[in-house]
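Supplementary Text 2. Reproducibility record for the structural model of the 209-residue chain.

All settings were left at their defaults, and a single model was retained for analysis rather than an ensemble. We include the record here because the model underlies the residue-level annotations in Supplementary Table 4.
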Amino acid sequence: MLRLGVLVSGGGTNLQAILDAVDDKRITNAEVAVVISNNKGAYALERARKKAIPAQCLAPKDFENREMFHKALLSKLREYQVDLVVLAGYLVAIPPMIVEAYPNRIVNIHPSLIPSFCGTGFYGLRVHEGALERGVKVTGATVHFVDAGTDTGPIILQKAVEVQEGDTPEILQRRVMEEAEWKILPEAVDLIANGRVSVENGKVHINKV
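Retained model, structure tokens:
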């Protein structure tokens, strides 16, 4: 049974997608061991508590410096014996010490088709604002492994979403969540939990059943 540590900063809709997929058996061989947020007011923590899942707040501002925060976060992941770290809308950079501790065992959901509209400065609504400003016809979401860069790790799954006339960043954000993020993040977790994902030469291979 793969133990998931889900890191979130806000409402936790992607966390809910994972919880629902576990309940519906669309994710098998995995369980959410702990939910950690940098924001004590994050509704994601309440979602976890409703499922009797340990919910913890670790905020950088509560520590003397970033290094102490990073060490505390790593310690918490180890305390709960986390096998896979899932970044589900987590707006804090993952430091090298945690990337090194979990090589190809940290996944992130990004609301665009990487390598478009990703990297430093592209998060939340800014991603969708960028897509609309550029006038793209298709956007989407990407699940990828986390490496030392920003949105540069090996891509696991992607799903395209059509941009429609009259879209605002908020409308597009919602459509990308509903049509892509909430589908491919649970799918990626299930693939990993069942040993179907491997990384060779920086590229992901999904093994057939």
